[in-house]
From TrEMBL:
Family that this chain belongs to: Belongs to the class-V pyridoxal-phosphate-dependent aminotransferase family. Csd subfamily.
Domain Aminotransferase class V: 51-418
Keywords recorded for this protein, A-Z: Pyridoxal phosphate
The species this protein was found in: Gordonia aichiensis NBRC 108223
Protein name (record): Putative cysteine desulfurase
Reactions listed under catalytic activity: (sulfur carrier)-H + L-cysteine = (sulfur carrier)-SH + L-alanine
Length: 442
Protein backbone atom coordinates (compact mmCIF):
# COMPACT_ATOMS: atom_id res chain seq x y z
CA UNK A 1 0.00 0.00 0.00
CA UNK A 2 1.21 3.49 -0.76
CA UNK A 3 0.77 6.33 1.68
CA UNK A 4 0.29 9.83 0.37
CA UNK A 5 1.30 12.64 2.69
CA UNK A 6 1.95 16.33 2.24
CA UNK A 7 4.54 18.69 3.63
CA UNK A 8 3.84 22.36 4.14
CA UNK A 9 7.37 23.51 3.35
CA UNK A 10 10.67 22.16 2.08
CA UNK A 11 12.73 23.48 4.98
CA UNK A 12 12.21 25.87 7.85
CA UNK A 13 14.11 28.67 6.13
CA UNK A 14 11.18 28.86 3.73
CA UNK A 15 8.54 29.60 6.34
CA UNK A 16 6.84 32.79 5.27
CA UNK A 17 5.14 35.48 7.31
CA UNK A 18 2.42 37.71 5.96
CA UNK A 19 4.54 40.71 6.90
CA UNK A 20 7.92 41.14 8.60
CA UNK A 21 6.37 41.99 11.98
CA UNK A 22 3.99 39.01 12.03
CA UNK A 23 4.56 35.53 13.38
CA UNK A 24 5.42 32.97 10.67
CA UNK A 25 2.60 30.60 9.82
CA UNK A 26 2.99 26.83 9.79
CA UNK A 27 0.47 24.76 7.88
CA UNK A 28 -0.61 21.23 8.70
CA UNK A 29 2.03 18.66 7.84
CA UNK A 30 -0.35 16.03 6.44
CA UNK A 31 -3.97 15.68 5.41
CA UNK A 32 -6.31 14.32 8.06
CA UNK A 33 -9.94 13.32 7.79
CA UNK A 34 -12.30 16.01 9.08
CA UNK A 35 -9.86 18.89 8.70
CA UNK A 36 -12.54 21.14 7.18
CA UNK A 37 -15.33 20.33 9.63
CA UNK A 38 -17.07 23.34 11.13
CA UNK A 39 -18.25 23.77 14.70
CA UNK A 40 -21.30 25.75 15.84
CA UNK A 41 -20.72 28.68 18.20
CA UNK A 42 -22.98 30.06 20.92
CA UNK A 43 -23.84 33.08 18.78
CA UNK A 44 -25.29 30.88 16.05
CA UNK A 45 -22.38 31.16 13.62
CA UNK A 46 -19.93 28.42 12.68
CA UNK A 47 -16.16 28.29 12.49
CA UNK A 48 -13.58 25.76 11.31
CA UNK A 49 -13.15 23.26 14.13
CA UNK A 50 -9.72 23.53 15.74
CA UNK A 51 -8.90 20.03 16.94
CA UNK A 52 -6.45 20.28 19.82
CA UNK A 53 -7.33 16.91 21.31
CA UNK A 54 -4.91 14.66 19.43
CA UNK A 55 -3.61 13.00 22.59
CA UNK A 56 -7.04 11.47 23.20
CA UNK A 57 -7.55 10.29 19.61
CA UNK A 58 -5.75 11.61 16.57
CA UNK A 59 -7.89 12.05 13.45
CA UNK A 60 -7.27 9.46 10.76
CA UNK A 61 -4.78 10.40 8.09
CA UNK A 62 -6.42 10.65 4.68
CA UNK A 63 -3.87 8.08 3.46
CA UNK A 64 -4.99 5.67 6.19
CA UNK A 65 -8.68 6.13 5.34
CA UNK A 66 -7.86 5.48 1.69
CA UNK A 67 -5.99 2.29 2.57
CA UNK A 68 -8.93 0.99 4.60
CA UNK A 69 -11.38 1.81 1.80
CA UNK A 70 -9.17 0.00 -0.70
CA UNK A 71 -8.91 -3.04 1.59
CA UNK A 72 -12.70 -3.34 1.74
CA UNK A 73 -12.72 -4.30 -1.94
CA UNK A 74 -11.07 -7.62 -1.14
CA UNK A 75 -12.15 -7.97 2.47
CA UNK A 76 -12.74 -11.54 3.68
CA UNK A 77 -12.11 -13.83 6.62
CA UNK A 78 -8.44 -14.50 7.38
CA UNK A 79 -6.60 -17.80 7.88
CA UNK A 80 -7.65 -21.28 6.84
CA UNK A 81 -9.53 -20.00 3.79
CA UNK A 82 -8.68 -21.33 0.34
CA UNK A 83 -10.75 -18.74 -1.48
CA UNK A 84 -9.10 -15.96 -3.45
CA UNK A 85 -10.25 -13.07 -1.24
CA UNK A 86 -9.45 -14.97 1.95
CA UNK A 87 -5.91 -15.53 0.72
CA UNK A 88 -5.52 -11.86 -0.17
CA UNK A 89 -6.80 -10.70 3.23
CA UNK A 90 -4.71 -13.24 5.12
CA UNK A 91 -1.59 -12.15 3.27
CA UNK A 92 -2.35 -8.50 3.93
CA UNK A 93 -3.04 -9.14 7.63
CA UNK A 94 0.23 -10.99 8.15
CA UNK A 95 2.12 -8.33 6.18
CA UNK A 96 0.77 -5.77 8.65
CA UNK A 97 2.79 -7.46 11.39
CA UNK A 98 5.98 -6.96 9.40
CA UNK A 99 5.13 -3.33 8.66
CA UNK A 100 4.61 -2.64 12.36
CA UNK A 101 7.80 -4.52 13.26
CA UNK A 102 9.83 -2.42 10.81
CA UNK A 103 8.22 0.80 12.03
CA UNK A 104 9.41 0.24 15.60
CA UNK A 105 12.61 -1.55 14.49
CA UNK A 106 11.74 -4.75 16.27
CA UNK A 107 13.83 -7.90 16.46
CA UNK A 108 13.29 -10.49 13.74
CA UNK A 109 11.85 -13.00 16.21
CA UNK A 110 9.61 -10.60 18.13
CA UNK A 111 5.93 -11.45 18.28
CA UNK A 112 3.57 -8.78 16.92
CA UNK A 113 0.19 -9.33 18.56
CA UNK A 114 -2.78 -7.25 17.46
CA UNK A 115 -5.04 -6.22 20.34
CA UNK A 116 -7.97 -3.84 20.82
CA UNK A 117 -5.90 -0.90 22.10
CA UNK A 118 -3.01 -0.04 24.45
CA UNK A 119 -5.02 -0.98 27.53
CA UNK A 120 -5.77 -4.39 26.07
CA UNK A 121 -2.12 -4.86 25.08
CA UNK A 122 -0.92 -4.10 28.62
CA UNK A 123 -3.54 -6.40 30.12
CA UNK A 124 -2.15 -9.12 27.83
CA UNK A 125 1.36 -8.30 29.02
CA UNK A 126 0.20 -8.46 32.65
CA UNK A 127 -1.38 -11.84 31.91
CA UNK A 128 1.88 -13.34 30.61
CA UNK A 129 4.43 -11.67 32.94
CA UNK A 130 5.59 -14.35 35.39
CA UNK A 131 6.76 -12.27 38.36
CA UNK A 132 6.65 -8.97 40.20
CA UNK A 133 6.58 -5.61 38.46
CA UNK A 134 7.76 -2.05 39.16
CA UNK A 135 5.85 0.93 37.76
CA UNK A 136 5.99 4.71 38.22
CA UNK A 137 3.29 6.75 39.93
CA UNK A 138 2.82 9.02 36.88
CA UNK A 139 1.38 6.28 34.69
CA UNK A 140 -1.85 6.35 32.73
CA UNK A 141 -4.31 3.94 34.33
CA UNK A 142 -3.69 1.61 31.37
CA UNK A 143 -0.14 1.03 32.63
CA UNK A 144 -1.05 0.97 36.30
CA UNK A 145 -4.28 -0.90 36.95
CA UNK A 146 -3.51 -4.09 34.97
CA UNK A 147 -0.43 -4.58 37.14
CA UNK A 148 -1.95 -3.82 40.55
CA UNK A 149 -4.99 -6.00 39.82
CA UNK A 150 -2.96 -9.18 39.28
CA UNK A 151 -3.49 -11.93 41.83
CA UNK A 152 -0.60 -13.61 43.65
CA UNK A 153 1.96 -11.18 42.18
CA UNK A 154 3.28 -7.92 43.62
CA UNK A 155 3.48 -4.56 41.94
CA UNK A 156 5.69 -1.91 43.49
CA UNK A 157 5.06 1.74 42.66
CA UNK A 158 7.98 4.20 42.54
CA UNK A 159 7.25 7.86 43.18
CA UNK A 160 8.99 10.03 40.61
CA UNK A 161 11.23 12.81 41.88
CA UNK A 162 11.45 16.40 40.71
CA UNK A 163 14.23 15.58 38.22
CA UNK A 164 14.89 12.78 35.77
CA UNK A 165 18.21 11.81 37.36
CA UNK A 166 16.66 11.53 40.82
CA UNK A 167 13.81 9.49 39.37
CA UNK A 168 16.18 7.05 37.67
CA UNK A 169 18.09 6.71 40.93
CA UNK A 170 14.83 5.88 42.74
CA UNK A 171 14.01 3.22 40.13
CA UNK A 172 17.47 1.71 40.51
CA UNK A 173 17.15 1.58 44.30
CA UNK A 174 13.81 -0.20 43.98
CA UNK A 175 15.20 -2.80 41.59
CA UNK A 176 18.24 -3.31 43.82
CA UNK A 177 16.07 -3.83 46.89
CA UNK A 178 14.28 -6.87 45.52
CA UNK A 179 14.38 -8.55 42.10
CA UNK A 180 11.40 -8.15 39.77
CA UNK A 181 10.52 -9.55 36.38
CA UNK A 182 9.54 -6.32 34.68
CA UNK A 183 9.81 -2.54 34.77
CA UNK A 184 6.74 -1.01 33.07
CA UNK A 185 7.02 2.68 32.16
CA UNK A 186 5.41 5.30 29.98
CA UNK A 187 7.44 6.78 27.16
CA UNK A 188 5.70 10.17 27.22
CA UNK A 189 3.26 11.55 29.76
CA UNK A 190 -0.28 11.91 28.48
CA UNK A 191 -0.75 14.84 30.90
CA UNK A 192 2.33 16.99 30.26
CA UNK A 193 3.93 15.44 27.16
CA UNK A 194 7.26 15.03 28.96
CA UNK A 195 9.41 12.25 27.47
CA UNK A 196 11.28 9.80 29.67
CA UNK A 197 14.77 8.47 28.78
CA UNK A 198 13.77 4.99 27.69
CA UNK A 199 17.28 3.77 26.87
CA UNK A 200 18.54 4.68 30.35
CA UNK A 201 15.55 3.01 32.01
CA UNK A 202 16.08 -0.10 29.90
CA UNK A 203 19.74 -0.24 30.94
CA UNK A 204 18.76 0.01 34.61
CA UNK A 205 16.17 -2.75 34.25
CA UNK A 206 18.53 -5.10 32.43
CA UNK A 207 21.34 -4.42 34.88
CA UNK A 208 19.13 -5.82 37.62
CA UNK A 209 17.81 -8.79 35.68
CA UNK A 210 14.45 -7.29 34.75
CA UNK A 211 12.81 -6.71 31.40
CA UNK A 212 11.18 -3.45 30.36
CA UNK A 213 7.76 -2.75 28.88
CA UNK A 214 7.25 0.67 27.31
CA UNK A 215 3.84 2.25 26.92
CA UNK A 216 4.48 4.21 23.73
CA UNK A 217 0.89 5.28 23.09
CA UNK A 218 1.85 8.97 23.30
CA UNK A 219 5.26 8.63 21.62
CA UNK A 220 5.11 6.62 18.39
CA UNK A 221 3.17 9.31 16.51
CA UNK A 222 5.75 11.94 17.46
CA UNK A 223 9.21 10.36 17.70
CA UNK A 224 11.08 7.41 16.18
CA UNK A 225 11.18 4.33 18.39
CA UNK A 226 13.64 1.46 18.07
CA UNK A 227 13.06 -1.67 20.11
CA UNK A 228 16.61 -2.81 19.35
CA UNK A 229 18.45 0.49 19.87
CA UNK A 230 16.50 1.49 22.96
CA UNK A 231 16.79 -1.99 24.48
CA UNK A 232 13.02 -2.48 24.81
CA UNK A 233 11.65 -5.94 25.58
CA UNK A 234 7.95 -5.14 25.08
CA UNK A 235 6.32 -2.18 23.36
CA UNK A 236 2.63 -1.29 23.23
CA UNK A 237 0.61 1.39 21.45
CA UNK A 238 -2.82 2.12 19.95
CA UNK A 239 -3.89 2.81 16.40
CA UNK A 240 -6.26 5.61 17.37
CA UNK A 241 -3.39 7.75 18.65
CA UNK A 242 -1.38 6.98 15.50
CA UNK A 243 -3.82 8.49 12.97
CA UNK A 244 -5.69 5.21 12.47
CA UNK A 245 -9.38 4.71 13.30
CA UNK A 246 -10.49 3.18 16.58
CA UNK A 247 -10.37 -0.50 17.36
CA UNK A 248 -6.83 -1.87 17.22
CA UNK A 249 -3.62 -1.81 19.20
CA UNK A 250 -0.44 -3.83 19.28
CA UNK A 251 2.00 -5.59 21.60
CA UNK A 252 5.45 -6.27 20.18
CA UNK A 253 8.05 -8.21 22.11
CA UNK A 254 9.87 -11.33 23.16
CA UNK A 255 8.04 -14.61 22.60
CA UNK A 256 9.09 -16.79 25.55
CA UNK A 257 6.67 -15.35 28.12
CA UNK A 258 3.92 -15.19 25.51
CA UNK A 259 4.40 -18.84 24.57
CA UNK A 260 4.67 -20.03 28.18
CA UNK A 261 1.44 -18.40 29.37
CA UNK A 262 -2.07 -19.69 28.86
CA UNK A 263 -3.79 -17.96 25.93
CA UNK A 264 -5.16 -14.53 26.77
CA UNK A 265 -8.51 -15.62 25.29
CA UNK A 266 -9.67 -19.19 24.70
CA UNK A 267 -11.19 -19.78 21.31
CA UNK A 268 -10.74 -20.51 17.64
CA UNK A 269 -7.58 -19.31 15.97
CA UNK A 270 -5.49 -19.82 19.11
CA UNK A 271 -5.79 -23.60 18.92
CA UNK A 272 -3.59 -26.03 17.07
CA UNK A 273 -5.75 -29.05 17.96
CA UNK A 274 -8.82 -29.78 20.11
CA UNK A 275 -10.05 -33.24 21.05
CA UNK A 276 -12.90 -34.35 23.29
CA UNK A 277 -12.77 -37.83 24.80
CA UNK A 278 -14.82 -39.25 27.66
CA UNK A 279 -16.32 -35.86 28.36
CA UNK A 280 -12.94 -34.13 28.70
CA UNK A 281 -11.38 -31.64 26.30
CA UNK A 282 -7.73 -31.82 25.31
CA UNK A 283 -6.36 -28.64 23.74
CA UNK A 284 -3.04 -27.87 22.03
CA UNK A 285 -2.42 -24.15 21.63
CA UNK A 286 -0.48 -22.31 18.95
CA UNK A 287 2.72 -20.49 19.80
CA UNK A 288 3.55 -17.00 18.63
CA UNK A 289 1.11 -14.15 18.06
CA UNK A 290 -1.86 -16.32 17.12
CA UNK A 291 -1.80 -17.93 20.61
CA UNK A 292 -3.23 -14.68 21.97
CA UNK A 293 -5.46 -13.64 19.06
CA UNK A 294 -8.43 -15.99 19.51
CA UNK A 295 -11.52 -15.22 17.49
CA UNK A 296 -11.88 -13.26 14.28
CA UNK A 297 -9.23 -10.52 14.30
CA UNK A 298 -9.77 -6.86 13.56
CA UNK A 299 -8.29 -7.04 10.07
CA UNK A 300 -9.19 -3.49 9.09
CA UNK A 301 -7.75 -2.20 12.36
CA UNK A 302 -4.44 -3.92 11.62
CA UNK A 303 -4.46 -2.57 8.06
CA UNK A 304 -5.11 0.93 9.41
CA UNK A 305 -2.21 0.74 11.87
CA UNK A 306 0.14 -0.54 9.18
CA UNK A 307 -0.95 2.21 6.79
CA UNK A 308 -0.32 4.82 9.48
CA UNK A 309 3.15 3.39 10.11
CA UNK A 310 3.94 3.62 6.40
CA UNK A 311 2.60 7.16 6.11
CA UNK A 312 4.64 8.42 9.07
CA UNK A 313 7.74 6.68 7.76
CA UNK A 314 7.26 8.29 4.35
CA UNK A 315 6.74 11.69 5.89
CA UNK A 316 9.87 11.37 8.05
CA UNK A 317 10.30 11.88 11.78
CA UNK A 318 12.67 14.79 11.16
CA UNK A 319 9.80 16.73 9.59
CA UNK A 320 7.39 15.68 12.30
CA UNK A 321 9.85 16.74 15.00
CA UNK A 322 10.53 20.12 13.42
CA UNK A 323 6.84 20.84 12.87
CA UNK A 324 6.00 19.87 16.43
CA UNK A 325 8.91 21.78 17.98
CA UNK A 326 7.75 24.99 16.32
CA UNK A 327 4.15 24.56 17.48
CA UNK A 328 5.28 23.60 21.00
CA UNK A 329 7.43 26.72 21.26
CA UNK A 330 4.60 28.89 19.95
CA UNK A 331 2.17 27.43 22.47
CA UNK A 332 4.57 27.51 25.43
CA UNK A 333 5.63 31.10 24.78
CA UNK A 334 2.01 32.18 24.40
CA UNK A 335 0.80 30.44 27.54
CA UNK A 336 3.66 31.98 29.55
CA UNK A 337 2.41 35.45 28.64
CA UNK A 338 -1.18 34.91 29.81
CA UNK A 339 -1.66 35.79 33.44
CA UNK A 340 -3.72 33.14 35.19
CA UNK A 341 -2.70 30.21 32.98
CA UNK A 342 -0.49 27.72 34.81
CA UNK A 343 1.26 24.97 32.78
CA UNK A 344 1.76 21.55 34.37
CA UNK A 345 5.15 19.88 34.65
CA UNK A 346 6.34 16.73 36.38
CA UNK A 347 10.07 17.43 36.17
CA UNK A 348 12.08 20.57 36.90
CA UNK A 349 14.92 19.81 34.51
CA UNK A 350 13.23 20.78 31.24
CA UNK A 351 12.95 17.39 29.61
CA UNK A 352 11.87 16.97 25.99
CA UNK A 353 8.14 17.12 25.30
CA UNK A 354 5.83 15.90 22.58
CA UNK A 355 2.90 18.03 21.41
CA UNK A 356 0.93 17.95 24.66
CA UNK A 357 0.38 20.83 27.08
CA UNK A 358 -1.53 20.43 30.34
CA UNK A 359 -2.54 23.59 32.20
CA UNK A 360 -5.05 25.18 34.54
CA UNK A 361 -6.74 28.58 34.43
CA UNK A 362 -7.19 30.55 37.64
CA UNK A 363 -10.81 31.10 38.60
CA UNK A 364 -12.21 28.42 36.30
CA UNK A 365 -12.75 24.69 36.55
CA UNK A 366 -11.25 22.59 33.74
CA UNK A 367 -14.73 21.81 32.43
CA UNK A 368 -15.64 25.52 32.33
CA UNK A 369 -12.52 26.25 30.28
CA UNK A 370 -13.17 23.41 27.84
CA UNK A 371 -16.82 24.36 27.41
CA UNK A 372 -15.91 28.02 26.85
CA UNK A 373 -13.29 27.14 24.22
CA UNK A 374 -15.80 24.95 22.40
CA UNK A 375 -18.89 27.18 22.59
CA UNK A 376 -17.22 30.53 21.97
CA UNK A 377 -14.26 29.62 19.74
CA UNK A 378 -14.86 26.20 18.15
CA UNK A 379 -11.77 24.70 19.80
CA UNK A 380 -11.65 21.12 21.06
CA UNK A 381 -9.45 20.31 24.07
CA UNK A 382 -9.61 17.68 26.81
CA UNK A 383 -10.46 18.36 30.45
CA UNK A 384 -10.42 16.18 33.55
CA UNK A 385 -7.82 13.86 35.05
CA UNK A 386 -6.89 12.09 31.79
CA UNK A 387 -7.00 8.57 33.31
CA UNK A 388 -3.97 9.60 35.38
CA UNK A 389 -5.58 10.37 38.74
CA UNK A 390 -2.49 9.77 40.91
CA UNK A 391 -0.43 12.18 38.80
CA UNK A 392 -3.04 14.96 38.86
CA UNK A 393 -3.41 14.52 42.62
CA UNK A 394 0.31 14.82 43.27
CA UNK A 395 0.53 17.85 40.97
CA UNK A 396 -2.02 19.53 43.24
CA UNK A 397 -4.99 19.37 40.85
CA UNK A 398 -7.43 16.79 42.25
CA UNK A 399 -10.21 18.32 40.14
CA UNK A 400 -8.19 17.89 36.95
CA UNK A 401 -6.76 20.22 34.35
CA UNK A 402 -7.06 21.22 30.70
CA UNK A 403 -4.98 19.56 27.97
CA UNK A 404 -4.25 20.87 24.49
CA UNK A 405 -2.51 18.50 22.10
CA UNK A 406 -1.67 18.55 18.41
CA UNK A 407 -0.11 16.58 15.59
CA UNK A 408 0.30 16.25 11.85
CA UNK A 409 -2.98 17.97 11.01
CA UNK A 410 -2.33 20.96 13.28
CA UNK A 411 -1.25 24.41 12.18
CA UNK A 412 -0.01 27.56 13.85
CA UNK A 413 -3.48 28.99 13.26
CA UNK A 414 -4.89 26.37 15.65
CA UNK A 415 -2.39 27.39 18.34
CA UNK A 416 -3.01 31.11 17.75
CA UNK A 417 -6.75 30.58 18.11
CA UNK A 418 -6.26 28.78 21.43
CA UNK A 419 -4.01 31.52 22.77
CA UNK A 420 -6.43 34.23 21.65
CA UNK A 421 -9.33 32.41 23.29
CA UNK A 422 -7.47 31.98 26.58
CA UNK A 423 -6.52 35.66 26.58
CA UNK A 424 -10.17 36.57 26.10
CA UNK A 425 -11.19 34.27 28.95
CA UNK A 426 -8.53 35.54 31.34
CA UNK A 427 -9.10 39.19 30.44
CA UNK A 428 -12.82 38.75 31.07
CA UNK A 429 -12.07 37.07 34.40
CA UNK A 430 -9.77 39.92 35.41
CA UNK A 431 -12.37 42.52 34.45
CA UNK A 432 -15.09 40.69 36.35
CA UNK A 433 -12.98 40.45 39.50
CA UNK A 434 -11.78 44.09 39.42
CA UNK A 435 -13.36 46.32 42.09
CA UNK A 436 -16.24 48.44 40.87
CA UNK A 437 -16.16 52.12 41.96
CA UNK A 438 -19.43 53.96 42.05
CA UNK A 439 -19.59 57.71 41.55
CA UNK A 440 -20.47 59.56 44.76
CA UNK A 441 -23.89 61.21 44.83
CA UNK A 442 -23.91 64.92 45.39
Amino acid sequence: MTAVVTRSFTDFSQIEAVSPDQTPTIAALAEVVGATERAPLADGTTVRYANLDYAASAPALTAVADAVTEALRTYASVHRGAGHLSQITTRRYEQCRETVRRFVRGRADDAVVFTRNTTDAINLAAHVTPGDVVVLDIEHHANLLPWVERKDKWTRIVEVASTIDETLAAVERELEAKPVSLLAVTAASNVTGEVLPISRLASIAHRHGARILVDAAQLVAHRPVSIVSHGIDYLVFSGHKLYAPFGAGVLIGRTDWLDAAQPYLAGGGATADVDVESGCASVSWHTGASRHEAGSPNVLGAIAIAAACEAITELGHEWIGAHEAYLCALLDDGLAEIEGVRPLRVFDDGVERVGIAGFTVDGHTPREVAEYLSAEHGIGVRDGKFCAHPLLNRLGHPDGAVRASFGLGSSSDDVDRLLHALRCLCDHTADASAPRHRKAHR
